[in-house]
Input
Amino acid sequence: MQSKQALIAAALAAPLLTSAATAQSPVRWKIHDMGRPVPPKVVSKPQLPVPPPSDAIVLFDGSDLAQWRALDGSAAKWTIRDGSLAAVPGGGAVFTRQGFGDIQLHLEWAAPTPARGKGQGRGNSGVFLMGKYEVQVLDSYDNVTYADGQAAALYGQSPPFVNASRPAGEWQSYDIVFRRPRFRPDGSVEQSARLTVFHNGVLVQDNTEVWGPTAWLQHLPYKSHPDRLPLQLQDHGNPVLYRNIWVRELAEEPRPGPGMHQTRPIATMTAEMLDRYVGRYGSAGQQPAVISREGTTLSVRFGFGAPLEMLPHSSTEFSLRWTAATLIFDLDPSGMPTSLTFHIGGDARPAAKLP
Ligand code: MG
Output
């Protein structure tokens, strides 16, 4: 039989074991776990270069590094070779002079050839959104490394769905849609950053949640930062090439709130008053619109469509609750509708009340 002390010790130990076993981690896999499944290979043949659309900010078109700087603000230490921007090992990262928040980013890159090194040492660079959140650049065509660190991974967090890599020396593309994190005034996180990535035209990250700044070996917590920060390209000691870098700044995502649905004063009408509008309205060559009443709600129906709820604003004007359309009625001296005009999308469609 166990002593009283042993029972107490066991009781104290039990919760500790339980809490260790159920500790919450944001991932099933440990960071850089070599056992994490490797994304399957997909053969992609992108048509490159992709020309920038008219509203893009061109960050590198092959001619100069005017848009870029080194960490300390001095001139970027990378070189331009045959219209490509080449990372210079030991030259340090390069940063855009302009800061960005929500963006669509396009860039093209090529791993050095002949390929040298292995794992994380082979064609390593990186696209750091806001200088903090890395989409990995790596020669992953035929190169074993941890899944959360291969090309197009959100580094240390989220592997790409598939491996769409091209061989070293071939141009590859990233198209990234990035939504910055939102912080509350007290510095806490209101909304995590999110990103979507196409690698060589293949979807590899779909609105992936970013847990915080990406880092080697660890998950870092978010720290409140400005809404706009420079884009950074990493120097990881390999002469990776870049070209055709452009961004489109994205508008803030609309949030639900007043103004999404304009509120206009709604007139109060009895069932008896509403019944005057009930009936069929038509014109030659068009299916009649049918107005019906249920309780104190009028609806209009076009053809086989669903009934659309009508809101009265006056005896002659109604709008639709969910659609930007109005119905203007003509009334006879006794107040009975004789016709209506349906206004939708800049069109006005008259229809006479049918007997
Ligand atoms: Mg990297």
User: Anything to note?
Assistant: Confidence is low (pLDDT under 50) at residues 14-25. The CA atoms of residues 106 and 285 lie 50 Å apart. The radius of gyration is 31 Å.
